[in-house]
Structure prediction request, 257 residues.
Amino acid sequence: MNPIALPAFTDNYIWMLHDGTDAVVVDPGEAAPVLAALDERQLALAAILVTHHHGDHVGGVDALRDRLKGPVYGPKRERIPEPFVALAGGDRLELLGRRVTVIDVPGHTAGHIAYFVDGDADSTPLLFCGDTLFSAGCGRLFEGTPEQMHASLAALAALPGTTRVCCAHEYTLSNLRFARAVEPGNAALARYQADCEALRAAGTPTLPALLATERAINPFLRCAEPEVVASARAHGAAGTAGAEVFAALRRWKNEFR
Prediction:
């Protein structure tokens, strides 16, 4: 039940889970990588999970329907290609024998959701978080507020530290450059950057990330840490409250080169 990252577009990942017979895919922005992976592994497509409405996450849904044996699931408060089963925070599913809990994570888009897959004796928990949480970063605020995104990230950070975070983009190295600017004294961050640079040099994804690692290195999850607060204040934070620190970091990141 290891998550498989299927590269799409320039830097997207479509995530696939399978049990040897059936597969579930998350955020298929295009169909071709999914069809190739299904054919290569001789899998049936049991379900599609969608986190939000952006085209690079839903663009392949309709082209996959001929292969789809089950439903498309997506956020209740967003326009997803019909038909789909509308979900909101607190809803539960069972897929491939694993329990899946839906979490509301508004911010990147107004109705964005995430999917948390429970662990078991043989597997660690998984989080499919779309464009809400990235390794060492977070998504831009296209439709939500800083307060919403700060709360959404706090909800994800509260999940078990063993959770493997399946983000939808390979943004890790650029995020790490920003994180080092925010918190240059963080030794764990320096070590993680070296590890991720080695992975990318070898052509290997940096994802999934470990949530415990994200809590140690991701500035957007560390808005109460003194060095992060000081950096945010130096870049216009209105105060030291978490949402104020987050808002300043997000504005800074938008312009960071």
